[in-house]
Amino acid sequence: MALPRPRGDITFSPATVREHPVFPAVSTTPSPLPDPKTLHKRKIFQHRKTPPLHFSVGGRLSSWPAYASAQAILQNRKPCSTTDKTGARDKPALTVAKPRYLEQLEDYLRKELLLLDMTKDNAEELKLQPYREIFEFFIEDFKTYKPLLSSIKNAYEVALAHFREKIRSLEPLKAMLVTVSEDCNEKILAIRAEERYEIKMLKKEKLNLLKLIDKKNEEKISLQTQVTNLRKNLAEEYLHFLNERDARKILIADLNELRYQREDMSLAQSPGVISGGQERWRFLSQGKSSDQLVDVLLEEIGAGLLRERETFQGLGITEDIPEFLRTEGFIRNKKLSKKEVVDIIKDIWKERMAEEQKEKTTTLGQFFLSYLQKRFGEASAMDWSYTIFENIRLFHSNEVMKLFHDILTGLAKENVFLDQKELESYLLKELTTADSQNEGSLTLDQFSTVLKTAFPLKTEEQIQELLDVAKDPLEELDIIYYRILFAEDEMGVSGPFVHKLWSQAQNEKQAYLQELETELGANKLAEITPGQLRQALISIDPSLDEQTLDYYVSQAFNTPIAELDANTLEEEEVLLAHLQTGTFKRMGPRELEPSS
To answer: 390, 396, 391: which is closest to 294 by C-alpha?
Structure first.
């Protein structure tokens, strides 16, 4: 596109420059003549078809406003014939059209931009060239502003060159980023391929496991069928063996009866066997069964042999020997009578119960040895200990000796004795309270009422058993002298009423243990934790308070409750055996009343 150059050099009068707002500080000195180099450069720009520069009338630069329309702003118009309220006429307004030179420059720029190939890599840099040319036109045509415009152009050129250099320096980094990106993509593809393989293998493993589960389920069904058949066979065998057992028991009972009859006949025929002759034997055998007669006979024979011994052999000093028997060598036999042994045991229990009021720090075995040392001296304490132990091991028909032996040897807990005494003391206190006249007697109805109040868990049958034992068959009136019921003979043996009371308590304990065993067996667990035992106890006895519950759990695991761990395991049989040897009784009914 050929654009005419502006004609002639541009000169401005001082007045024109001062009036124009765009050039407030134009020099009024005439422009010097251009040197040959400048003329040559002009020729080059003319050859490049520089658009012509248009000026306003009178040699002034166009002051066409940037906010005017593309065609015209205002035209010169004549003063209006009308006047405003003050009588002044409208001032004439100068109409200025958009400069032709500006239109040519815009047209040139637009066409040059259209000719550019924007698909090239350096399209943005090529796009700057038309703008650079337009700017050079301004620099060459406006001589007064040439130094400033040249400085601006140079500053931008330097900045562009700096940024080009920066771009060139970043090219290797770009290449490296491309390489790293490709490597990462390859790694990602490899990882995805590996994941796909792992997923495939996991799916395959899942299918195998599902097949294995199906197989196990089939085996489980088969085993359940076998178990059902085995249970059926076991039930049949069980019934068969029950019948066999009953038949065997009947046969054994018949044989024992014959044997006892023969022993009775032999005992009756040979009274020089028992010390005291036939008269003492009749006293010892009165009211006893055949089994009891055999025990009495063995005790009498053993007592004779024990009195003949002069010494005992010490068991040793190892840790497994109880403290009260831990010695070596020969120990002298004190040859005590049954009554002397019973009196010593009763005195030991008396002092032991006094110690119970304080804090107990020793076992019964330790207390037993300490008692003998204080009473008989350390030198002969072992003589007394061995003599007493041999007697209580022999005379099991005496309840005082038997219970003391069982507690010393660990067959029973010490609190069994204390519980028995507490039971007697509790009932005697209730009866004494009901005896308002303090006469030592109550009517049968009063006695029955006290029993029902004191033992609310006993059945009517159990209450009647106690009443039958308490009544004196020789007494015609319905009067019961309750204090006599708790009396002991010289050997410490209690009367029938206390024995019946203990017997019922033992039966209730066994029934309570049976309920617990059934409750634990319902879970089919080989080993029990403290929490599971606690839950079973609460299920069968909701009235248990927290303190008693802790005591039972501690007694079952044979460990203080503070030292028990939640994950402690113990076999069911061991737990029940521990509870069997200690105090264990029901605190309330299995099903609480709604009001409770």
So the answer is: 396
Taking alpha carbons only, the member of 491, 561, 30, 72 closest to residue 284 is 491
pLDDT tens per residue, range 126-182: 888 888 888 888 788 888 888 898 898 899 889 888 988 888 888 888 888 888 999
The burial of 55, by beta-carbon neighbours within 10 Å (0-12 exposed, 13-18 middle, 19 or more buried), is given as middle
Question: Cα–Cα distance between 469 and 485 in angstroms, integer?
Answer: 9
CA dist., res. 169 & res. 158, Å (int): 16
User: Residue 41: what pLDDT?
Assistant: 39
- pLDDT, tens digit (0-9, with 9 covering 90-100), for 469-524: 888 766 666 888 888 888 888 888 888 898 899 989 999 999 999 999 888 887 77
Per DSSP, the three-state class of 127 is helix
Question: In whole angstroms, what is the distance from residue 563 CA to residue 550 CA?
Answer: 12
Domain count, the chain: 2
**Which pLDDT score is estimated for 594?**
57
Write the pLDDT tens digit of every residue in 385-421.
999 999 998 888 888 999 999 999 988 888 888 888 8
Residue that terminates a domain, selected from 362, 380, 411? 411
365 and 417 in contact (C-beta within 8 Å)?
no
Q: Which of 372, 392, 411 is the last residue of a domain?
A: 411
Range(s) of the domain holding residue 327? 309-411
Buried b (16+ CB within 10 A) or exposed e, 546-577: eeebbbbbbbbbebeeeebeeeeebebeebbe
Residue that is written with structure tokens 């029993």 in the block = 451
In a domain, 24, yes or no: no
Dihedral (CA of 217, 218, 219, 221) sign:
positive
> Does some domain include residue 450?
no
Our measurement of the distance from residue 435's CA atom to the centroid of its chain's CA atoms, rounded to an integer in Å, reads: 57
Identify the DSSP state of 257. Answer: H
Decide if 139 is inside a domain: no
For 571, phi then psi, to 5°, come to -70, 150
What are the C-alpha distances in Å from 30 to residues 10, 12, 27, 184?
10, 9, 8, 69
pLDDT digits (tens, 9 = 90+) for 80-106: 444 444 444 444 445 567 778 788 888
- CA–CA dist 70, 73 (Å, integer): 8
pTM of the model: 0.51
Interatomic CA distance for residues 471 and 480, integer angstroms: 6
Buried b (16+ CB within 10 A) or exposed e, 127-153: eeebeebbbbbebbbbebeeeebeeee
b or e along 107-116 (b: 16 or more beta carbons within 10 Å of the residue's beta carbon)? ebeeebeeee
